[in-house]
């Protein structure tokens, strides 16, 4: 017989007893007949009792509409991560390949799990809904222990409303755990007791960040919100302090010496960590020896140390608009590992032999080296030399540029993607208030450095893959970028066709077609938006031990080797290469795969933090502008809630909400990226030119609302605007300084 139902409802118990183990399925009407429940009132009671049993998972409803005992095989434990999309329910993103659909879990069955937590769940098959339903059995790992938000204090008790949008309940801070924090301040709270369906989570204030709207408070809040530590531990700082600032003869005796070879760095003007340098010297018969020299971080950061653990936990440096949260303590990132000019530095190098046309003519050399950079160049300085300005190294710089251009042309011919999205930086005053938004422009100097870094990354990946003549599988950290999803690609091709761009979606032709589209887009209003939409269609690059190739770069083997100061995967790559060069033991592949997954997750989190800081400054900048100003913009996205518009002059993006489009009632056509008016048949679509005015710039929510003033040359009549235009009050005493940064990830 069925197990005893723990609910005291006698009717529910009678229903449960109808189902013997491994037995029958009954429809609602069959159950009613068996229990002799005939009247309307009886059937209402029966329906309520069935719902209690379903909720308790005592029985389940199958896809044929019948009820029975849950299939034990369908209730096996699975693991996945919580996506807590709203206060009522979450989806569990399943791990592995056995479960393809996300699993729906109502909030009462989450057992206190929060967004991002790794959980063990039971899945109940046979539901009619689009997604299977499940129940959390166990919380394996918490995604975060800290939350940031604005504190509310009353009668000595604190409540934190978290900035993180997927934390749907307030956090209680009992008296004595406020640590001096006051009502209205921005704070970080560490969770001490996790909540349940009936109890709020409880925490203690771990950091007082400042007042909302203060630049430091907001930037620290972004870092803390994305689990990026605000400082290094005392233990790791002690380890760093023990390093000598002098390179000994012992440290250099087994390294190839490049100190007398012309070597220089090329970086942004405001860079402090120089992790790559380039050397060049003639090798005879028209051949050039070009060295890509990378800071030898693995010489300092040894496995098993506190320093290594913290570097791994961070996994990447994070570049906000006005600061860097480094992966390594400053003494390493800006001093001992930084390839500063006129100082000896320990490096790990990839040396290639090529002709003046950028063609590799012999086997490269890889190994540990010591260099002495002769000059630190900025991108701007190198660009001026390329364009004709005199310089002592002008012949070498121009030759390297010609080589880089040839290598780039070769990549494009092989099917590499040529997409380049425009990034922005900010001109800030001393208080961090944005005075101007400036689009970054990539020129040949940037591409020169990029091509040689790509070459080094590809070369070391090929070396590891073919090490020992391919007789053994050699674990390696690969940077992979898989082919785009065919369905998403076809949808994009159909949409691009409406603009007159033909995309061939076959594997062999897609990259060529996309590059041809980019060439035709040059100078058009929809250029940036079409490129961004194409990028969204692409798979996301990630780290793995599987040599799956890099679709966007058209490389069969590709790794990350060139930025170990700011990326932990590069540190791993250095260690693996050194093991192979020394014929030492290989790292266990499954363990390395877990490290790769962690680094991919941390990279995604860092990117989100960087975007959050940019968005905050864009909102702050727009809040300072004249509220009556009309801007030219382009529709950059279409949703059921309205249209996103990007302002052309400063790349700031906001939304015209569908409730403010009173010229018609609009329907959203998702696959066509447009809204269509029911009465007027007016189409508002991706790429349309518009004119907008700012309705509200909300710093707390980091969003901008626009009012549509003109669409495709015709004026519109938006709803009456009663919003209060927000202006911050911390803008006195401005003194301009240019800050910003961040580096492209490939």
Q: What count of helical segments does DSSP give?
A: 17
Q: Strand tally, please?
A: 35
Head-to-tail CA distance between termini: 60 Å
- Stretches with pLDDT under 50, minimum 5 residues: 1-7, 718-745
- Helix and strand composition category: alpha+beta
Output mean pLDDT.
87
Backbone shape: globular
Spatial strand sequence of the major β-sheet: 13-20-19-16-15-14-21
Biggest beta-sheet profile: 7 strands, mixed
- Percent range for β-strand residues: 25-35%
Give the % helix.
25-40%
Radius of gyration: 30 Å
Describe this structure in words.
With 746 residues, this protein is α+β, with helices and mostly antiparallel strands. It has a 7-stranded mixed beta sheet with strand order 13-20-19-16-15-14-21. A 6-stranded antiparallel beta sheet has the order 28-27-26-32-33-34. Helix 11 (394-413) crosses helix 12 and helix 13 packs antiparallel against helix 15 (527-537). The longest helix has 35 residues, at 589-623. The radius of gyration is 30 Å and the shape is globular.
